[in-house]
Amino acid sequence: MDVADTPAIRSAGVARSYPAFHERAARVAAGLRALGVGPGDRIAIVMRNEPAYLEITTGAARLGASAVPVNWHFRRDDLRHVLGDSGSRVVFAHTDLLPGVAAVLPARARLIEVPVPAGTAAACGFPPPPVTGGHPLLDAWLSDHAPLTEAVARRPSTVIYSSGTTGRPKGVLRDPVGEEQLAQSVAKFLEYFAVRPGGRTLIPAPLYHASPGQHAVLALAAGLDITLMPRFDAEEFLRLVERHRIQQAQLVPTMFVRLLRLPKDVRERYDLSSLTSVVHAAAPCPPHIKHAMIDWLGPVLREYYGGSETGAVTWCDSHAWLAHPGTVGRAEGTCSVVVLGPDGTELPTGRTGEIYLKPDDNWPQFTYLGDPAKRAAMEAGRLPGYVTIGDIGRLDADGYLYLSDRRDDLAISGGVNIYPAEIEGCLLGLDGVRDVAVFGIPDEEFGEVLAAHVQPEPGAALTAEDIRAQVADHLASYKVPKVVVFEESLPRDESGKLFKRRLRDPYWAGRGSAV
After folding, report:
1. Would you give the DSSP letter of residue 504?
2. Residue 305 Cα distances to 140, 224, 302, angstroms
3. CA distance linking residue 146 with residue 142, whole number of Å
4. In which element (H, E) is residue 470 found?
5. Beta carbons of 194 and 302 less than 8 angstroms apart
């Protein structure tokens, strides 16, 4: 589709005009109602990025039901947990993912088969699988239902399950939003993401994550031209930016690393001058990586910090970041940030403690499905409306926030607090290191010492001493890893989130957890 055409939703050779998109979404709503789905119910989506994904999400919301995006990498136990815990009445699944879903499908739940588009399959590296025909096929199912003309006044948000980096994923259930509340959210989205109504956006991360999922919802509401990537590929990202004259994109730092590691002549081959805003979140970005991105693309990078539970709370553009290197931004609008000590008192500027966030007044209230106790435990007792998502950090004199690490990743060695994220950032600056995870492991003398699991670049001849020397040259001696393990790959999902517990748990087996 030519960029001169009116805004559309496209992915890997499939494109929908907005009228066609909304007509299909209205058929989804009608089909779900015929299956007995109504307001307050939930339906699950086990699919890769493609326009049908957003049609299903939009159709469910039109009916008053919440979509539950499911990480399509999940296998038997994780799938069973999310589908059962969410109480999903209907599950939409891509054909190749159908057997795994069917094996754990809750009783009385219905399954709709979604054929994998050829372009989606090609982007993911496999031939399009033949349909099974054992369940209703999406397009045939849609054709059986006339579009649902009415819609609920207050539409529910998707139920995002946390990534499960420290335990079983929990479903974040947010209150439904009305038209005025949605309009306010769209206005802030356009302002903070620095994109105009009708502008062109690219979403390269999986829609089952909170940030790209919310990005897509607001982009649809704003009528943006939307390009989805079924799977991130660094050069394909550049190709899409040039082809569709993309103005705005949202990435994660892992994607920055992959882009920067493209050969210089490849990076210079593509015209990226249309980009006016590249937003990132979801994971800490090592300062040298962000500097390199700004040097390449110019001051178009914008960063925010928050969680599935709170939405974006802090923001900074490139100019603010360069003036406050390493920050994740300053609270904007009606949002607020405080840093509390172990006794719950507010810490002064520069002191490190647990971060508590007050979401924007427009952000919907939330709870956790089936776990109100966990929701209550997030509250700052002396500060109503503030919640923690488990991060450690500090504020500077200008109100800019700096992250140290996750509370659960903190290592305490000989009574000294060590934040592994700092060491990981240091090691990513070493030639030959593609990825790294640092964490505490048990030690009889110090309680904990550090282990570094390193994924080298192909062909790199790194040694454990190289790893230790890099840290010793840049950081305090007590931050040097005692144990160094080289891995073919580290357990990350496509948004860049690292499942550190999979590496750490074997060290603590039978000894009690460090966290």
Report:
1. H
2. 42, 23, 11
3. 8
4. helix 464-474
5. yes
265 Cβ partners below 8 Å, 6+ apart? none
Q: Where are the alpha helices (DSSP H) in 35-169?
A: 51-63, 76-86, 98-103, 118-124, 138-143
List of residues 6+ apart from 452 with CB closer than 8 A: 423, 427, 436, 437, 438, 467, 481, 483, 484, 485
Mention every residue, 6+ apart, whose C-beta is less than 8 A from residue 425: 284, 286, 287, 288
Alpha-carbon span 338 to 346, nearest angstrom:
7
DSSP-assigned beta bridge partners for residue 357? 337, 387
Query: Six-digit token pair at 147?
Result: 């579009």
Residue-wise pLDDT tens digits, 376-413: 888 887 898 999 988 889 999 999 999 887 777 878 78
User: How many other CB atoms are there within 10 angstroms of residue 263's CB atom?
Assistant: 9
Torsions phi, psi of 400, nearest 5?
A: -85, 140
Q: Is the dihedral of CA 235, 206, 408, 357 positive or negative?
A: positive
- Give CA separation, 65 vs 61, 176, 371, in Å: 5, 10, 20
Pick the CATH number of 410-508 from 3.30.70.920, 3.40.50.410, 3.30.70.580, 3.30.300.30: 3.30.300.30
CATH entry 3.40.50.980 includes domain 10-175? yes
Q: How far is CA 454 from the centre of its chain?
A: 23
Measured CA angle at 103 (ends 99, 104), to 5 deg: 125
The pLDDT score that the predictor gives to residue 508 is 84
Distance CA 209, CA 493 (A): 10
**What angle do helix axes 210-221 and 179-192 make, rounded to 10 degrees?**
110
For the chain, give every domain's residue range. Answer: 10-175, 410-508
Residue 5 has pLDDT above 70, yes or no: no
pLDDT tens digits for range 468-511: 999 999 888 889 999 999 999 998 876 667 888 889 889 988 66
137, amino acid identity = L
Residue 458 CB burial class (10 angstroms; 0-12, 13-18, ≥19):
exposed
Do 79 and 70 touch, CB atoms closer than 8 A?
yes
Distances, alpha carbon 158 to alpha carbons 101, 312, 416, in Å:
20, 16, 41
* Residue pLDDT, tens place only, 180-212: 999 999 999 999 999 998 999 999 999 998 899
> Does pLDDT of 326 surpass 80?
yes
| Cα separations in angstroms, 77 against 103, 184, 490, 494 | 10, 39, 21, 20
In DSSP terms, 405 is beta-bridged to 392
Neighbours of 296 (CB within 10 A): 16
Query: Residue 367 in contact with residue 375, Cβ under 8 Å?
Result: yes
Torsion of CA 146, 149, 153, 156, to 10 degrees: 20
Is beta strand 411-413 parallel, antiparallel or unpaired with respect to 416-418?
A: antiparallel
Question: Residue 177 corresponds to which tokens in the numbers above?
Answer: 């939003």
